[in-house]
């Protein structure tokens, strides 16, 4: 691969030496100040930057720090005569430099450092591409799993996606972090995956369930955990799936947890799941209206549901329903 290197130094002789040294293997761009180099970076893809430390107007550390916003993935090397440890630590932390090279530097040693740095750069790029491929594969796996569940129960088609969207909007309203929202999204999509292990005659029964049949339904939580617990990527969401049928007052299943013993993510899924179940048509009943379902959620505050979660859900649901209907129209 033909890499682009940017060399920044206020001494012309040094720039000429770099050009002679690296031009056979790499495309070499040069700048004699940090300001000039920043303009070059705005208009060119650069794989590696070599910058002198002591330069007028803008020193090497300040320059390399500014490049983080322009080209965060570029490798940075600092040439310095300073031996003060605090200065070098500051350069490493603030400018995210890959290596610093002490002056006077040896051209052969510097060549080796540059070659190795670009190997690291290529490896980082390869790993990113692999991560994207794995994410796409992972997303495909989830889609296949949720599709299998939808196919088993035609009355709940699209349910996992709706529950997930309700949950995400609630989580955002509550101020969950990006990583927490990602885990919540995954848990929402997979929260009822254990229903695959429940007989279809029980899922689709048009009348009231017997106690034995209701016990079979409750086992879907355990089935779901068993399906997912051996897959490393699902570790973070197991507890959300395991506890999403627990109740605020401790009368839920399968463990009888209460209040703060239940993860916030599981409480959110519980409210979103219950709302969607109440408003969905089934073989044996017509779904409740939006207003009636909200009234039922409010009745369950302090008993089945955490008050803070219900309040957040009520705050977001009207706008969220509009968005859900738009999405469903797209996929019809």
Helix content: 55-70%
Number of strands: 5
Q: Any idea of the CATH class of the largest domain?
A: Mainly Alpha
Number of helices: 14
Which runs of at least 5 residues are low in confidence (pLDDT < 50)? none
CATH superfamily of the largest domain: Hypothetical protein af1432
Tell me about the largest β-sheet. Answer: 5 strands, parallel
Mean pLDDT equals: 85
Spell out the helices and strands N to C.
EHEHEHEHEHHHHHHHHHH
- Global geometry: elongated
Strand % is 5-15%
CATH topology of the largest domain: Hypothetical protein af1432
Write the CATH architecture name of the largest domain: Orthogonal Bundle
- The class by helix and strand makeup works out as alpha/beta
Describe this structure in words.
With 332 residues, the protein is an alpha/beta fold. It has two domains: 4-127, Rossmann fold, CATH 3.40.50.2300; 153-331, Hypothetical protein af1432, CATH 1.10.3210. Helix content is 59%, strand content 8%. The chain contains 14 helices and five strands. The protein has helices spanning 12-22, 34-43, 60-70, 85-95, 107-152, 159-173, 178-190, 200-203, 211-218, 220-228, 238-243, 264-279, 290-299, 307-331, and strands at 4-8, 27-31, 48-52, 75-80, 99-102. The protein has a five-stranded parallel β-sheet, sandwiched between helices. Helix 3 packs parallel to helix 4 and helix 6 packs across helix 12 (264-279). The radius of gyration is 29 Å and the shape is elongated.
């Amino acid at each position: 691969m033909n890499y682009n290197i940017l060399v920044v130094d206020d001494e012309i002789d040094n720039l000429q030496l770099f050009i002679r040294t690296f031009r056979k293997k790499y495309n070499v761009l040069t700048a004699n100040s940090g300001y000039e180099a920043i303009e070059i970076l705005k208009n060119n893809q650069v794989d590696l930057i070599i910058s002198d430390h002591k330069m007028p107007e803008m020193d090497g550390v300040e320059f390399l720090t500014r490049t983080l916003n322009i080209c965060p993935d570029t490798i940075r090397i600092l040439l310095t005569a300073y031996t003060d440890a605090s200065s070098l630590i500051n350069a490493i932390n603030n400018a995210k430099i890959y290596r610093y090279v002490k002056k006077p530097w040896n051209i052969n040693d510097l060549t080796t450092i540059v070659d190795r740095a670009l190997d690291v750069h290529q490896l980082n790029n390869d790993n990113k591409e692999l991560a994207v491929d794995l994410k796409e594969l992972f997303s495909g796996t989830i889609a296949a799993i949720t599709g299998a569940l939808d196919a088993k129960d035609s009355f709940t088609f699209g349910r996992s996606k709706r529950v997930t969207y309700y949950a995400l909007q609630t989580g955002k309203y509550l101020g969950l972090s990006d990583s927490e929202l990602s885990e919540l999204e995954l848990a929402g999509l997979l929260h009822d995956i254990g229903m695959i292990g429940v007989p279809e005659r029980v899922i689709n029964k048009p009348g009231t369930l017997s106690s034995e049949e209701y016990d079979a339904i409750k086992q879907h939580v355990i089935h779901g955990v068993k399906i997912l617990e051996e897959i490393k990527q699902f570790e973070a969401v197991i507890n959300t799936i395991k506890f999403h049928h627990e109740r605020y007052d401790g009368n839920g299943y399968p463990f009888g947890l209460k209040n703060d013993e239940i993860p916030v993510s599981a409480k959110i899924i519980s409210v979103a799941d219950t709302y969607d179940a109440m408003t969905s048509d089934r073989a044996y009943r017509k779904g409740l209206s939006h207003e009636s379902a909200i009234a039922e959620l409010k009745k369950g505050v302090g008993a089945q549901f955490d008050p803070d979660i219900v309040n957040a859900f009520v705050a977001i649901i009207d706008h969220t329903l509009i968005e859900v209907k738009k999405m469903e129209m797209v996929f019809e």
